[in-house]
Amino acid sequence: MEFIGSSYEGEYKYGRMHGKGRYTFPTETQYVGETKDGMFHGKGVLYFPNGSKYEATWQNGITEQVSNPACVGTIVMVMTGAFTLKDVMDSNLQVSFPVM
To answer: Cα–Cα distances in Å, from 30 out to 3, 27, 46, 73?
Structure first.
């Protein structure tokens, strides 16, 4: 899982993201947390450029459980169910979640 213009700082195994690390998307959105076999896997947080964040438990790159479903302020959009990293890149989630 790599997008052109992205970067990763963290642990590797067999040349793939594996362990704890920080993945920065070309949009400057950052994932900080656990990875496995090149995908987000385990506990992690997406930090958006506007200061909002999305905490979740990931399973093979897909969200399994949201850590903090309660938000302070107005919620523009509520994500239910699973979404993939492609969904994050294809949508403008950084304006969809208020600062928690």
So the answer is: 13, 9, 6, 22
Residue with tokens 């450029």: 49
CATH number for the domain running over 7-95: 2.20.110
Over range 62-79, report the average pLDDT.
52
Boundaries of every domain in the chain: 7-95
DSSP string, 32-45: EEEEETTEEEEEEE
User: Cα(100)–Cα(94) distance, rounded to whole angstroms?
Assistant: 13
Q: Is the pLDDT of residue 13 over 90?
A: yes
pLDDT of residue 100: 37
Handedness of CA 35, 41, 42, 47 (dihedral sign): positive
